[in-house]
Specification:
alpha+beta, minor pseudopilin epsh fold, four-stranded antiparallel sheet, 8 strands
């Protein structure tokens, strides 16, 4: 009598069905994972910039000093490119530039692969709870898709920081 042999693997049909199901699942998950990554990266950028701005405003009011937030390449001079590092410093002489005896109190990260622009080269917070740069807007956009994940940080004339999420109100055109 012959005894049945036990199976030690998959049949070709089982393997093809399994690979087909796996490819369908991967195809369905990949776009949402990409969107999840972009959304969280923009949120991290917004949080980092907002923290630097809140530090500047808080320091200006509590220590009764002028505080400047500006992008920089070398942590010495302000630069108009908001994708660079950001420095937050106490502006004792009121000239808007980091001087020899002025203290850097904070910084913000450099951002790659995202477009960050502002309608101001630097932001200055006064000790009497104003933002002395009039209304300012920092716009954060993904470079390949400028509308879906765009955010704007709006600084009012009194220094209040708020987030704008409506893509219709955010200008992501490179200029």
């Amino acid at each position: 009598m012959n005894t049945p042999r036990s199976q030690l693997g998959f049949t070709l049909l089982e393997l093809i069905v399994t690979l087909g199901l796996l490819s369908i699942i991967v195809a369905a998950v990949t776009p949402s994972a990409s969107a999840f990554y972009k959304r969280n990266k923009v949120a991290a950028i917004v949080n980092n910039h907002t923290a630097a701005l809140q530090l500047a405003r808080h320091t200006a009011v509590t220590e009764n000093v002028f505080v400047v937030v500006c992008p920089t390449k070398d942590m010495q001079n302000c630069d108009p490119d908001w994708s660079q590092l950001k420095m937050v410093f106490i502006d004792e002489d009121g000239d808007g530039a980091l001087g020899g005896n002025e203290e850097i109190i904070g910084s913000g990260d450099m951002v790659k692969d995202y477009l960050i622009k502002s309608n101001r080269d630097s932001l200055r917070f006064a000790p009497f709870s104003t933002a002395q740069t009039l209304t300012a807007t920092l716009t954060i956009c993904t470079e390949e898709d400028n509308s879906n994940f765009a955010r704007a940080i709006v600084i009012s004339t009194v220094g209040r920081v708020r987030l704008e999420k409506d893509p219709a109100l955010i200008d992501c055109t490179a200029s």
